[in-house]
Amino acid sequence: MADESSREGTIAPKSREDDIGYDLTLRPKTLREYIGQKSHKENLEVFVRAALARDEPLEHVLIHGPPGLGKTTLSQILANELGVQMHATSGPAIEHKGALAGMLTRVGRRDVLFIDEIHRLQPAVEENLYPAIEDFRIDIVTGDGPHAQSIQLPLQPFTLVAATTRTALVTGPLKSRFGMEIRLDFYPPEDLALIIHRSARMMKLAIGEDAAMEIATRARGTPRIANRLLRRARDFAQVANMKSIELEIARLALDRLGVDSLGLDEMDRRLLRVLIENFNGGPAGLETLAAALAEPKDTIEDVYEPFLLRQGLLMRTPRGRQATLKAYTHLGVPPPAAPGNTQGALFG
Ligand code: ADE
Question: Which residues are known to be catalytic?
Answer without folding.
Answer: 71-72, 116, 165, 224
